[in-house]
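Marked as duplicate of an earlier ticket. Keeping the data here for the record.
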Amino acid sequence: MRPARSGEAVRVAGWVHRRRDHGGLIFVDLRDRSGLLQLVFRPERTEVHERAHRLRAEDVLTARGTLERRDPGNVNPGLPTGEVELAVEDFELLADAEPPPFPIDEEGALDEVLRLRWRPLDLRRKSMAEMLALRHAVVRSMREYLDAHDFLSVDTPILTRSTPEGARDYLVPARVQPGSFYALPQSPQLFKQLLMVAGVERYYQVARCFRDEDSRADRQPEFSQLDLEMSFVEEDDVIETIEGMMARVFETAGLLGVPAPPYPRLRYDDVVAAYGTDRPDRRFGMEIRDLGDLLTGSEFKVFASALRDGGVVRALNAGALDLPRSELDALEERAKQLGAKGLVWAIVEEGATWRSPVAKFLSEDELSGIDDRLGAGPGDLVLAVADRPEVAASVLGQLRLDLAERFELIPHGRHDLFWVVDFPLLAWNGDEERWDPMHHPFTAPSGDLDEPGALGSRAYDLVLNGSEIGGGSIRIHRRDVQERVFAILGIPAEEAQERFGFLLDHLRHGAPPHGGIAMGLDRILAVLAGRDSIRDVIPFPKTATGADPLTGAPAAVEDIQLRQLGLRVGGAGGKPTPRP
């Protein structure tokens, strides 16, 4: 409603956002998805005015009247409709509302379980309504971009077979084949590869995916991803497509401070060495440095033994953080909880000296060399770990995040976006003494298949502000290579045919070179909306325990349903088991 329509007779409908009685006048802010409009009830319309006194927040009504300009002193510049109001001539109460369990017209912090129990009411709140609109706009911009670049939108099955990709599958019992199960897809990975075999060439889908794993701030049992695949491509083709699409997304969302593409490409080994993780938040610096070459022959036994046994000594400069001894001890305990044998801390003082329990074991040359390597000056806190490379990386990587969050070192309004490339293909699983894929077993390798530990992969991840928002690769398109990779992973030929035969069989019939990526839609939206958890950008999410307070899921089912499926509840934990 705009001033140009002043004098028109109009009818509106919506929810009562607020009601205010000002002497003889009653004002109601009426809300719908488009925003607010002020209604005014004047006492000369006695019967209408009397009924308006009984209106409560969240009542649903429709009203008719004349749109009028507000007096200049009553204009609300904060509303698009702030120059007009509706002089109500009559209204109809369509549904009366009980008092809501929390205020709809306020944006204060609320208990999350309460919000999820009453999620439709929570979605009425301004911030959540804006989130839904943002989600729609972002998905629309992705679709428009991909449509304009000759991609074809194709739906893939939700009921499929179990082909575990690292997490547990959600299983669905098949009534028509007792003892057999469908699985809900962890991703459309194999189907999109088969679409490339089918000649689709450019596919995309906003896909629902399911993983039976513990929830975290950036994970949910069911989530949405933008999935795409392209034929006859190299890494650059996929990366450049995504960069163009993401630039459109950021523009649509009005997100400022995002660098323009092309985005930097950093090697996996370099990223992990500098930040302790392959998805770092680089916005606050605090890079990890290797000190091994400075400590060769050190008399400090902790450092010397770690280096002698093939380990590393790595450290970071946390900056001028004035921490008491109790908190430094707490940092050491935190390092141990994360898996380190210990943590060396030091406060750099004037004259290249350290205030540290280990300072007396290090020479002046070693202290000055460490300070120079870390760029540490008087007052700076140095943290060092001597351990296996993977332990030193993960522990220091987490400590830098802990410190950045605690001391608010992450700059607001600045965003960091980059690719991680040159991943290893495999990671050694010491517990089970086998190779595991770093991404998934369909990623194309680089290198000699006779040397599994040296294999690289043609994979690429996109990282935004310390969150992996996309991951993809060039795929294996030859059956013989795929079978070799399965064998390296310890999957016998018969098992590979049983689990993945529908892919292997089709790779014999002319599969083009192809690659793609999956973009975490919920994670992207969390960054765009400035939310810490993806639960705040999913319309109907689960709690951290996987429960749905709105519907009560998961829940028991009737015994007749189990009998129809040939199942009964029993065994450890009351799990369904097949009937004999």
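See parent ticket for discussion. DSSP finds 15 helices and 26 strands in the chain.
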